[in-house]
Amino acid sequence: MALYKTDAIVLGHRNLGEADKILTLFSPDRGKIHAVARGVRRPRNPILAGSQLFSYSRFLIVEGRNLDSISQCEIKESFYRIRQNLESMAYGLYFAELLRASTPIEDKNRELFRFFLKTLYLLQEWENKEVLARIYEVKLMAIQGFAPEVFSCVSCGQSPSSSIYFSPSMGGILCFNCHKTDENAVSISSETLVAFQKMLMQTYEKLKNINISKYTREQLSNILSLFISHQIDRKLKTVQFIKDIKRLNIISSV
Ligand SMILES: [Zn+2]
């Protein structure tokens, strides 16, 4: 039996049989791995803590003919604060789903792994999680090779100064003269465009204190969701979950 060691984050899990779980792990060396965690639904199982959603561990895995299985795990970061808070949990699930949907992550990708891990650390402490989600979307799309063009018109190449549009299908902005090239292009305010550009160019650290008005947050959310649905051809289940939680928050704060 071949054994291998790898760092990995738990991206998902589902029950198997009486007491087992199949974990979906994201590893910097191997990409996505499915592995059985045996007996993990019983109390005091040694892999229990490491099988929690988002937990980040060093795993020792036994290669199987059909499915690998986890032999040991040593936790590096449990990310329990994400699981303790419903809003953080909803965003964490969304981040994981978007990661899986935007790439066949079977391929190893260290940059993508480091970026995702960093996002989980930030999710624990970032005040406005909605803004973090927008930054994550922009940066993730760029890492995956779908960076939107937000500096010059995707049709004529000029830098527009006013009356700017965004074309989700062309993946960038259109100037006033070109905006009819795509009948589904949507208007984008200059404030939203500046926020978009910053999210693409600046680091998470620099963006920590970014101040974005409610209008811009809503416009950016709408534009990015149109853009992402053009890049990935599946519906994201967690989007509705976040909306539901937001509605609950509004109700409880009235
Ligand atoms: Zn143009």
Word description of this protein:
With 254 residues, the chain is of the alpha+beta class. It has 2 domains: 3-78, OB fold (Dihydrolipoamide Acetyltransferase, E2P); 82-253, Recombination protein O, C-terminal domain (de novo design (two linked rop proteins), Up-down Bundle), CATH 1.20.1440. 41% of the residues lie in helices and 22% in strands. The chain is built from 8 helices and 8 strands, in the order E-E-E-E-E-H-H-H-H-E-E-E-H-H-H-H. The strands form 2 sheets. A 5-stranded mixed β-barrel has the order 1-2-3-5-4. A 3-stranded antiparallel sheet has the order 7-6-8. A hairpin with a 4-residue loop joins strand 6 and strand 7. Helix 2 (86-102) packs antiparallel against helix 3, helix 2 (86-102) runs parallel beside helix 4 (129-143) and helix 2 (86-102) packs antiparallel against helix 8. The longest helix is centred in the C-terminal third of the chain and has 18 residues, at 214-231. The radius of gyration is 20 Å and the shape is elongated. It starts with a strand and ends with a helix. The relative contact order is 0.11. The mean pLDDT is 91. Bound molecules: zinc ion. The site of zinc ion has 8 residues, from loops.
